[in-house]
Amino acid sequence: MKRIVIGIDLGGTIVRAGAFDEQGHMLSAREIPIEAPRGPELGLRKIQKLIEQVQAESGTDSLVGIGIGSTGPVDPIRGRIHNPFTLPTWDDVPIVEWVQKAFNVSVTLENDADVAALGEYWQGAGQSVKKLFAVTAGTGIGTALIEEGQIYRGMDGLHPEAGHTILDPNGPLCYCGAHGCWESLCAGPSIVRDVLKRDLSDSSLLQMAGGDHEKIDACMIADAARNGDPVARQTMEKAARDFGLGIVNIIINFVPEMIVLSGGLMRSSDLFLPAMQEAIEAHSILIPAKQVRILPAQLGYHAGLYGAAYTIWSTENEQFKR
Amino acid sequence: MKRIVIGIDLGGTIVRAGAFDEQGHMLSAREIPIEAPRGPELGLRKIQKLIEQVQAESGTDSLVGIGIGSTGPVDPIRGRIHNPFTLPTWDDVPIVEWVQKAFNVSVTLENDADVAALGEYWQGAGQSVKKLFAVTAGTGIGTALIEEGQIYRGMDGLHPEAGHTILDPNGPLCYCGAHGCWESLCAGPSIVRDVLKRDLSDSSLLQMAGGDHEKIDACMIADAARNGDPVARQTMEKAARDFGLGIVNIIINFVPEMIVLSGGLMRSSDLFLPAMQEAIEAHSILIPAKQVRILPAQLGYHAGLYGAAYTIWSTENEQFKR
Question: What is the ipTM of this complex?
Fold first, then answer.
């Protein structure tokens, strides 16, 4: 019977599950709202049912393990989620132990940025890249470093948060405690905040938002910038410049062979990438930054499922090891 | 007969050599001026003689290998030094091949920041630390990451230069091409440049320098700051704040277990470390930065010799491998 692994991607809104064979084929996949504020017990029961459905639909009974990627912070060593930020009420939830008991297979827990990057390493844009860096820019900026197929881990297995490194000490205050961290300068909500600080009387934005400031979102700002709206344009140009400087810092700190970009911001890649290339050109004196390949991610919102499954395959099978 | 390895530390001014046994004892050491602008051939002959002397003084003939740490950029894979910045005339010098021919033993070449960090890992402040980050701040800011005793290498074996990551896009232009990189904000020459931009009419600095602007150096500024000179104090406070932000970025990017600090700036650690601690306190929301141990290096200017020797021992002896 065909052996499968199930990958879980637990986000703040949606939880997804997918069944994968050893060759990296996704045999079945499903998603449901996690409704985190209703508590971890309901959430865990939802996850259990999702796993059962995906396994049934995969057409096999031979489940080797379950890999979980979750919106951070997670504790991969103790197998616990403690996330007051995006999973309210999920305080110190022993998800690995719980899923292990329910299915009696090996279970892993990793940060969602790490598993998305691993997915791209296994079956996406970064296949076999020795030093692969991944940047997901949307509501926030998440990052991951994959070294020869292994997740980079800091002290106590902690996941670094390069999205919160300081890029401009005169920038806005972020919830992380920093002024002008990368995320505070160019994630989606930061772009909206920046535009709202400007004089919008000559801008088309208010009209686009039906006269309601609160309805202005990053996509709208990008569209207005494309249509030549001067305020939207200035805002996007600043965000794009800062995004480029953040990418330059990643290159100088890590000198990866490849950077894979994903997330909502990439829908505005026409606005972001030229400024990024310009920044890279200007900062190639000490490090040949221009030689770093920068590519869009290939697996979309399934990347996390692939990577979560890979965390099991890579420990089960010698062939996956370096 | 006792087996030894010789470590070389090739700087822009001085070249040092030391002989080490497997237990990490330094049996002999010597140094001479490299006189780089007189050309690599003279330099290589000087290095050969230095190795011969150190080996003779170590009291053994059994030379296992020679590890070289050099002021960067170096190419550890091809064994070549190409350094127009601090070793003028040393253009694409095949130092590994040359030393190998002269002594018929295995020879390695690494960046000097990497070998200094390895030295601290082997016999200094960072012994057995799984993720060890080293920062040398003086004329410039050099950095290194040691993962379980292995040098972190980027694309093509390149050494990352975290000292040149951007910290303030409104800061001064650095030779690296960036505005406001870490080094441009708080290395020694940057502190001097910053003070010279200020109004010195109420400062004791000009008097300390005998009336000559050009004689003001970083040590003088630190002394003046300690004595309450307001201009010197403001300058040092800004540099210390920026140094602290740079350390915060290292922690957020790498989450090392330990950061080892060395270099001339550490002579002013009384002025730098309080601001660093303050910055770390303020940025511990997402990453428990306060838990990262930050210690002064222990091996002083011998760190590079230890680490260069270790590059040979760690490949020769299984016991050194993880």
Answer: 0.94
